[in-house]
Amino acid sequence: MLRRLLFLLCLLTLLPLPAAARLAGPQEAWHNPGQIRDLAQVRSSGVLRVLVNQSRNSSGEVKGEPIGIEYRRLRAFEQYLNRTADDGSQLTLKLIPMAKDQLLAALQRGEGDLVAPGEVVPRHGRGDISPSAPVMANVPLVLVSRKGARRYQRLEQLSGKSLALPTGSAAGEVIQQINERLAQRKLSPIAIEWVDPTLAVEDVLEMVHAGILPFSVVELPIAQRWAKVLPNLQLEQGVVFSRDGDMSWFVRRDATNLRASIDQFLKTYRAPSDADAAFQRVYLPLYKVHDPLAKTARKRLESVRPVLQRFADQHEFDWLNLAAVAFKESTLNPTARGTGSATGLMQITPATARKVGVGNVHQLENNVQASAKYLASIRRQYFNSPHFNERERMAFTLAAYNMGPERVQRLRAEARRRGLNPNQWFFQVERIAAEQLGMGVVSYVNSVNKYFFAFHRERNALEQNQRVASAKR
């Protein structure tokens, strides 16, 4: 009986951990997920666990410069708590990034002491959660489009249109309510396109700015902030979906002293006048995505599609991933010349091609073959574990393609050390990359990811010619 019990215990240790457990990393003295803590317990532990929205807009930091809108405010709150400690004890913040739609549930489970989302968060049915005094009250949710697009004055004009929203957007519930009113008037509903979870609000705005997505609905302060670095954004401030939501922090309802400290702090806190200086300095010079399905790009894609599909099939890639890399590297131009010896559609160097046994990368087929073989070798050697989902596996492969696999592995090790998920590039390992290296590789992977989803939205149309040709044969 004892041996059977020991055998079962061994089997249990081999089972994969749930996602939440993997994200938390190794248990530390301050981390007790089931425990609900008020201010006294927080001070005693020396750590305030803050669940932050993982988007770069909310909680990002780049090479020591804060660019997330909550980052400065949280650091000021840390200083406030240390200043007001009766016994002079000091505490530090532990930022725990996760998807916006998971934040309040994690707070309920006791995985953090405080939620600082940086966006409007619906909290229906969560009676044990208490919002702070508003960081910003009555925040308008407004329509955002691209300059040059049709202007709108009334919500009814959006009947039958589709709006792209990031996961967890407060606009989702609001649009459902608007659709009920449209139905009463026998008008078509407004459709919601929920974008992939690897895309946060800033990614959606960049895709609207490029013309990849036609519309989104965003909190006005967030739209105004990103319009400073995305000048083609068009804010339709007359088309307001809601003014009812507040931007607040959240604590457990029974953490009354922590809530009181937060409210007292927010009464007197004023953001510095240069709060967005670092944000603009980081993002203004960054590469901005373009529409990979504009007229010229679409023609180029059709001409190189057979080659991309052939080598994607050989190396078990979705051909649209190779197309996304090609657009990022050369805007789908097979004759492009890059810096150094990088050349062709995939901007591969002769030296890299030789490593995978391919010569003469000036020929289109060899260029694509060398790139696909190199990407496949990186994936096979470094990111073949079943712990990666396919989007994350591709993201890590792209990061290694851009900066070298050894550097990516060091970033993963640092992410693990900090309690982040080393098997998730988006919003986890990329945070370490941004902090240590800047936005170069982060921007590269994000751009290719956006191009993939731009192509994926049009997959049927892009593959239609192939189906027609196959039918004729």
UniProtKB/TrEMBL annotation:
The keyword DNA-binding does not apply. Pfam families: SLT. CDD domains: PBP2_YfhD_N. It comes from the Bacteria. SMART domains: PBPb (SM00062). Residues 1-21 form the signal peptide. The keyword Signal applies. Residues 47-286 form the Solute-binding protein family 3/N-terminal domain. This is Transglycosylase SLT domain-containing protein. It comes from Azotobacter bryophylli. The lineage of its organism: Bacteria, Pseudomonadati, Pseudomonadota, Gammaproteobacteria, Pseudomonadales.
